[in-house]
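Supplementary Text 2. Reproducibility record for the structural model of the 62-residue chain.

All settings were left at their defaults, and a single model was retained for analysis rather than an ensemble. We include the record here because the model underlies the residue-level annotations in Supplementary Table 4.
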Amino acid sequence: MVKDGRKHLTTNAPATLAVHAGEAPDPTTRAHNLPIFQTATFSFETADEKEAAVDAAADFTP
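Retained model, structure tokens:
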């Protein structure tokens, strides 16, 4: 570790350097991890099938 608490990134692969470029701890929580965004995409055969799925999901959304 260096004085500012960051690891030396010079020995990492270029892809790793690109992913972590500009990364700094969150000023509020001091967390070093990137946030996780849980998302999903879906495909449907027809518009009616999509509408039925949206209606069903709305029934269970708080």
